[in-house]
Amino acid sequence: MLKRRHVLSSRDFSREEIDSVLKTAESLEPYARGRRAGWLEGKILALLFFEPSTRTRMSFETAMKRMGGSTINLGSSEASSISKGETLADTVRVMGSYADAIVIRHPKEGSARLAAEFSPVPVLNGGDGAGHHPTQTLLDLYTIKKESHLDDLSIALVGDLKYGRTVHSLAYALALYGAEITLVSPPSLRLPDQIISDLSRSGAKLVETSDLSEVVGDVDVLYVTRIQRERFPDLVEYSKVARSYRITPEFLERARSGLKIMHPLPRVDEISPAVDDTPHAVYFRQSFYGVPVRMALLKMLLEAGQE
Ligand code: NCD
After folding, report:
1. What is the pLDDT of residue 305?
2. For domain 10-132+290-302, is the CATH number 3.40.50.1370?
3. Three-class secondary structure assignment of 57-80
4. What is the second-level CATH architecture of the domain 134-287?
5. For ligand 1, which residues put their CB under 6 angstroms from it?
């Protein structure tokens, strides 16, 4: 179903397609944990990361290798011809002749879409500036499904909703599942108006506030994000909002007993390490789920005979 398609935005997926990725991911969990599989033997994934990454890069690499495939890595821009002035279009054209698919992360919004225009093979957006991060959304939904529930979900998206690409992508997908979404951010870091209006038009149930203590007792999931320091044009503005929210065990005393706390990671100081050992914390399992989910996506995109 997904064969030879680009994955640029969470809006490219229907609910049925997402459900099918999540179902495949579930069946692949034993392989993500080490059971042998050779479905992608001979297939190569190119990793083009122009911004720092730990989980996205390493879990794509793990996913490929767990299925018998391999990866090639452009490395830092300094080590490649990008430093000689080569364009993204040319780089992608060539990488597409070496590899069967390309994952790209880039500081500029829209760069994955540009790459897709020039690539002969599927392009997966691993994060384009403050734009989108669709594969993170798939693993976030998988986490919600496994650790909480996707039906009748009440979720708060917390932190940097302006620059945070994970929440941009996730909000669109949550709307497909009819979730009640509470947007919690400092006033200067609200979800962009365009996304709010898209979501409202699609009938999403949205509430906005800057006060997390108002909502912590009413939600099934807190999706906490880092304030995206690197996206601020002015670091004085960053310092004004840097420590807006901090989740501690004391703060969670009024939470529902089944509350799950998610975070795409890396965290800075928005979740105290003292929360890690509470039953609320699911963010490290969430990082692991990136492996079976990316395996599912790659298998559906690349496996031979999957027309
Ligand atoms: C996020 C990203 O890069 O957008 N990390 C990730 O992919 N897990 C979140 C962040 O950097 O804050």
Report:
1. 56
2. yes
3. HHHHHHHHHHCCCEEEECCCHHHC
4. 3-Layer(aba) Sandwich (3.40)
5. 55-56, 127, 133, 136, 165-166, 226, 264-265
CA-nearest residue for atom 11, ligand 1, is 266
Give the Å distances, CA to CA, from 227 to 75, 101, 196, 208.
26, 31, 19, 18
Question: Which regions of the chain are under pLDDT 50?
Answer: 306-307
**Ligand 1 centroid vs 113 CA: distance in angstroms?**
19
pTM tops 0.70: yes
The rounded distance, in Å, linking the Cα atoms of 200 and 205 is 7
Ligand 1, residues 50, 265, 288: which to mutate, most atoms within 8 A of Cβ? 265
Determine the pLDDT at residue 50.
94
User: What residue ranges do the domains of the chain occupy?
Assistant: 10-132+290-302, 134-287
Assigned token pair, 39 = 């479905």
pLDDT of residue 1: 59
Cα–Cα dist 32/91, whole Å: 31
Please state whether the peptide bond connecting residue 266 to the residue before it is cis, i.e. omega within 30 degrees of 0. Answer: yes
User: How many residues are listed for the chain in this entry?
Assistant: 307
| Rounded distance from Cα 264 to ligand 1 centre (Å) | 6
Question: Is 244:237 a contact under the CB 8 Å cutoff?
Answer: no
pLDDT value at position 307? 43
The reply to whether 10-132+290-302 and 134-287 are identical in fold is yes
